[in-house]
């Protein structure tokens, strides 16, 4: 028999907390069929209460918008060969607003190196001459031809095969 009369009815015991601290979540509560007998509350069988009057047990909730890191796509590499750098914007949003509440420990990187194919070496210059006053024999002996200065100042000596 459904709940009838003033002293009998369905009661929702509310759990007011949303199950999330931000964004969309769920609020749940326990709904019981109760009766007051001689001033005391007595739990009844759920079938004794009117199902049509039973309050909902679960409802959606929305807390403040969540903080979230957003990134733009990576830029082109600053070099077309060799090692360069590419960048992107990294911003913290709460809903549609840029804010400062995101966790810095999980912040995506905004700058990284890009290692492309090696740059081509300059073609040999047949007109290169060693600069006067540079000790190119010593530069060859101590393997300085890979250094930028000696590769230019001793271009002819550094280009020649050595034994």
From TrEMBL:
Where does it primarily localize? Answer: secreted
Q: Which GO terms describe its cellular component?
A: extracellular matrix; extracellular region
Q: Does the keyword Membrane apply?
A: no
Supply the alphabetized keyword list.
Repeat, Secreted, Signal
Q: Please give the name of this protein.
A: PLAC domain-containing protein
Give the InterPro entries listed for this entry: ADAMTS_ADAMTS-like, PLAC, TSP1_rpt, TSP1_rpt_sf
Matches recorded under SMART domains: TSP1
Secretion signal span: none
Annotated SUPFAM superfamilies: TSP-1 type 1 repeat (SSF82895)
Q: Does the keyword Signal apply?
A: yes
Q: Name one Pfam family in it.
A: TSP1_ADAMTS
Where in or outside the cell? Secreted
Q: Where is the PLAC domain?
A: 124-162
Q: Which organism is it from?
A: Strix occidentalis caurina
């Amino acid at each position: 028999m459904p709940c009838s009369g003033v002293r009998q009815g369905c009661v929702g015991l509310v759990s007011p907390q949303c199950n999330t601290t931000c964004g969309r979540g769920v609020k749940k509560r326990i709904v019981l069929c109760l009766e007051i007998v001689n001033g005391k509350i007595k739990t009844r069988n759920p079938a004794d209460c009117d199902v049509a009057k039973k309050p909902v047990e679960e409802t959606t909730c929305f807390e403040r918008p969540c903080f979230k890191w957003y990134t733009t796509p990576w830029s082109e590499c600053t070099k077309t060969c060799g090692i360069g750098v590419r960048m992107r914007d990294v911003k913290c949003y709460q809903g549609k607003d840029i804010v400062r509440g995101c966790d810095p420990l999980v912040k995506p990187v905004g700058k990284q190196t890009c290692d492309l194919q090696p740059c081509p070496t300059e073609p040999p210059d047949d007109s290169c001459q060693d600069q006067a006053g540079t000790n190119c024999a010593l530069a060859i002996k101590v393997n300085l031809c890979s250094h930028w200065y000696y590769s230019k100042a001793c271009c002819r000596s550094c280009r020649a095969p050595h034994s």
